[in-house]
């Protein structure tokens, strides 16, 4: 890349001031700045697109490896399942021939559910808090007027000695 130091930038600025003139120099500087910004954005977009395409290629490769591994696992499961079915059919072949008591096992039905009477006192409050819990936590159980509350919590006066 171009190595621009402070001295080189000052020299370019002095030459531009002489060649372009002090009236047109701010407008030219804005135009050059805008063009440089557009160029930087274009380069950043190109870099991002290249990175996305590289990531996409890596994801495609990873997808292919995962799919091949899944196919291998599926085939091994299918072969083991067929082996299991064969061994199961061999093991149960003798049981099916001598199944004299299977009718009694297959004819069993569960008993019907028991009848439960609905609650008689449905008007009673079901979620009432017990008195012992109210006493333990300090919950007020009786309403008290403001004057009674002040009188209750007023500090007791000491007798004069």
Automatic annotation (TrEMBL):
InterPro entries tied to this protein: TatA/B/E (IPR003369), TatB (IPR018448)
Main location: membrane
Its membrane topology: Single-pass membrane protein
Biased composition (Polar residues): 99-108
Biased composition (Basic residues): 117-126, 151-161
Chain segments carrying region Disordered: 70-161
The keyword Transmembrane helix appears for this protein: yes
Superkingdom, natural source: Bacteria
Keywords tagged on the record: Cell inner membrane, Cell membrane, Membrane, Protein transport, Translocation, Transmembrane, Transmembrane helix, Transport
Keyword Glycosyltransferase: no
Subcellular localization(s) per the UniProt record: Cell membrane; Membrane
Subunit organization: The Tat system comprises two distinct complexes: a TatABC complex, containing multiple copies of TatA, TatB and TatC subunits, and a separate TatA complex, containing only TatA subunits. Substrates initially bind to the TatABC complex, which probably triggers association of the separate TatA complex to form the active translocon.
UniProt xrefs under PANTHER family: SEC-INDEPENDENT PROTEIN TRANSLOCASE PROTEIN TATA, CHLOROPLASTIC
HAMAP family cross-referenced by the UniProt entry: TatB (MF_00237)
Assigned protein family: Belongs to the TatB family.
Function: Part of the twin-arginine translocation (Tat) system that transports large folded proteins containing a characteristic twin-arginine motif in their signal peptide across membranes. Together with TatC, TatB is part of a receptor directly interacting with Tat signal peptides. TatB may form an oligomeric binding site that transiently accommodates folded Tat precursor proteins before their translocation.
Name of the protein: Sec-independent protein translocase protein TatB
High-level lineage: Bacteria, Pseudomonadati, Pseudomonadota, Betaproteobacteria, Burkholderiales
Gene name in the database record: tatB
């Amino acid at each position: 890349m171009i190595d621009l130091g402070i001295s080189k930038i000052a020299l370019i600025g002095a030459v531009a001031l002489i060649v372009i003139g002090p009236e047109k120099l701010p407008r030219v500087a804005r135009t050059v700045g805008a063009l440089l910004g557009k160029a930087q954005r274009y380069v950043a977009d190109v870099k991002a697109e290249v990175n996305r395409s590289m990531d996409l290629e890596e994801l495609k490769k990873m997808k292919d490896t995962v799919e091949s591994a899944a196919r291998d696992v599926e085939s091994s499961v299918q072969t083991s399942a067929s082996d299991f079915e064969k061994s199961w059919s061999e093991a149960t072949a003798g049981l099916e021939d001598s199944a004299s008591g299977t009718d009694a096992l297959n004819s069993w039905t569960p008993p019907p559910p028991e009848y439960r009477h609905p609650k008689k006192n449905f008007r009673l409050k079901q979620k009432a808090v017990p008195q012992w819990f109210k006493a333990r936590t300090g919950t007020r159980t009786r309403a008290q007027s403001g004057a009674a509350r002040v009188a209750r919590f007023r500090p007791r006066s000491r007798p004069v000695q």
